[in-house]
Amino acid sequence: TTATHYLLGTSNNVSILGKKNEMHNRKEGWHKTGLKATPVLKRWDGILGWVNWKKLAKKYGDFWDTSKPLLVENSPPEIQAPDQLMKYFTPLYGKVRFLLLVRGECGYHGDD
Q1: pTM of the predicted protein model
Q2: Which residues pair with 70 in a beta bridge?
Q3: Quick one: which H or E segment has residue 71?
Q4: Could you tell me whether strands 14-15 and 70-71 are parallel, antiparallel, or unpaired per DSSP bridges?
Q5: 4-19 b/e with 16+ CB inside 10 Å = b?
Q6: Distances (CA, A) of 72 to 57, 63, 105
Q7: What's the CA gap between 9 and 20, in Å, rounded?
Q8: In a 10 Å sphere around its CB, with 0-12 CB exposed, 13-18 middle and 19+ buried, how is residue 99 labelled?
Q9: CA separation, residue 12 to residues 1, 50, 111 (Å)
Q10: How would you write the pLDDT of the chain (112 residues) with one tens digit per residue?
Q11: Which member of 16, 20, 83, 108 has the greatest number of CB atoms within 10 A?
């Protein structure tokens, strides 16, 4: 997922969260907003009812260049809440679409 995010970020039509395109988990919105500091079991509770989605959507707008047609975010826990992403991000940024990449065990490095 990191490489895909990085490659997408090289396009002039894409805005990633922040100015620096890097191959590191610092590119994730959850890292940039402090949500990554939440205990891992809470981040992967299957519901994410504790997340303030309205605030998160607005915060991402502080990092994105919203003049670009494609806004990219790469925080894996968000896949648990597609309805929340649609509800809060669509009014601010347009239709939400998902690209789901599944990594195999050989790609797991154990520090997430």
Answers
A1: 0.85
A2: 14
A3: strand 70-71
A4: parallel
A5: ebbebbeeeebbbbbe
A6: 12, 11, 25
A7: 9
A8: exposed
A9: 20, 35, 31
A10: 788 889 999 999 999 998 888 888 888 999 999 999 999 999 999 999 999 999 999 999 999 999 999 999 989 899 999 999 999 999 999 999 988 877 666 655 555 5
A11: 16
